[in-house]
Amino acid sequence: MTGKITKDYTLSIIGCGVMGQALLSAIYNAPKATNEELASFYPSKIITCNHDQKSTDQVLKLLETYGESPNGIKVECSFDENEKAVKDSEVIILATKPYLVESILTPLKPILQNKQQVIISIVAGWTIESLCQYSRKVSRVMTNTPAKFGYGCAVVSHSSEVDSVEKALVKELISKVGSYVELPEKNMDAATALVGSGPAFVLLILESLMESGIKMGIPLKESKECAIKVLEGTAKMVEITGEHPSVLKHQVCTPGGTTIAGLCVMEDKGVKSGIIRGVEEACNVASKLGKKK
Ligand SMILES: NC(=O)c1ccc[n+]([C@@H]2O[C@H](COP(=O)([O-])OP(=O)(O)OC[C@H]3O[C@@H](n4cnc5c(N)ncnc54)[C@H](OP(=O)(O)O)[C@@H]3O)[C@@H](O)[C@H]2O)c1
Predict the structure, then answer these.
(1) Helix (H, G, I), strand (E, B) or coil at 25
(2) Which numbered atom of ligand 1 lies nearest the CA of 79?
(3) 3-state class of 201 per DSSP?
């Protein structure tokens, strides 16, 4: 049997922790597919694979909060049964910690090499080449924690053996975390920094805005609400207008006014270059993680 994807195929999630559950949630709860081709991209069954009973119970608890899947997906939760799950699956989502990948995939290698299933890997630092020793069909994904709420961003690169139908399937499933961007793998370390670590950088900015309100006497709750809306509203404004941020920034700057005064101090303090250099440093660290393999 090959890993050819049929209409009623099975998908396994190996490592159903924080990110595995985010993907499970996004795929299981995806709105009903609008045509037959898209419907065929949804598995009829998802098998979640964990290491022990305790983490499997967490997945079962999460499933209790869901209604029926709009695309009719059934879920089977397992632990310590990776081999059986992989044997029964046509598509595999790999979502374990990077240091465990080798020990998890090595015993599965004969099955993977035989079936050549599509491996959708969200594991940081594991390159397409390093995963191709198990199956030649690899889609490497970098996503982030807002994916848990449907506001994630996923950057995706494929190995050359992933065909156009499989690419469309990966896009349909993974885009459910929020947004989907396809890039060559050479951009993956930068995507790890910008997308994967990005929420921590934005939270630093959010925290700073919030604390500025508190410092000037606005209570914590209201400072937090204002800071969240400023970030959310500004991002939406850039998205809706399609304008470059600097154009919109200058529209807020009245000559001799408050905004330009604030911006000048921030430029003096190196806020912009600090952010750029910080993201670049995260990218440098990501590239070293990849080379450890
Ligand atoms: N968290 C993020 O913000 C983020 C963002 C982007 C990408 N990633 C990537 O996502 C991956 C997962 O991260 P995470 O934060 O979701 O980790 P996590 O919460 O620790 O989840 C990993 C899961 O793997 C399971 N596992 C361990 N050994 C296993 C085995 N032998 N067979 C099957 N499952 C096993 C664990 O189950 P047990 O508890 O039973 O051991 C756990 O549920 C990482 O590679 C990371 O690079 C994470």
Answers:
(1) helix
(2) 33
(3) helix
Q: Where in the chain is the domain with CATH 3.40.50.720?
A: 10-187
- Fold of domain 198-290: ProC C-terminal domain-like fold (1.10.3730)
Phi (first) and psi of residue 153, to 5 degrees: -130, 135
Q: What is the pTM of this model?
A: 0.92
Q: Which pLDDT score, from 0 to 100, does residue 1 have?
A: 37
Distance 142 CA to ligand 1 centre (A): 14
Q: Ligand 1 center to residue 251 CA distance, Å?
A: 44
Superfamily of domain covering 10-187: NAD(P)-binding Rossmann-like Domain (3.40.50.720)
Q: Which of 54, 56, 97 has the most ligand 1 atoms within 8 A of CB, as the residue to mutate?
A: 97
Give the distance, in angstroms, between the CA of residue 23 and the centroid of all CA atoms in the same chain.
Answer: 8
Q: Which band of pLDDT confidence, cut at 50, 70 and 90, is reported for residue 293?
A: low
Distances (CA, A) of 230 to 158, 159, 224, 276: 36, 40, 10, 21
SS3 182: strand
Q: Is the pLDDT of residue 2 over 70?
A: no
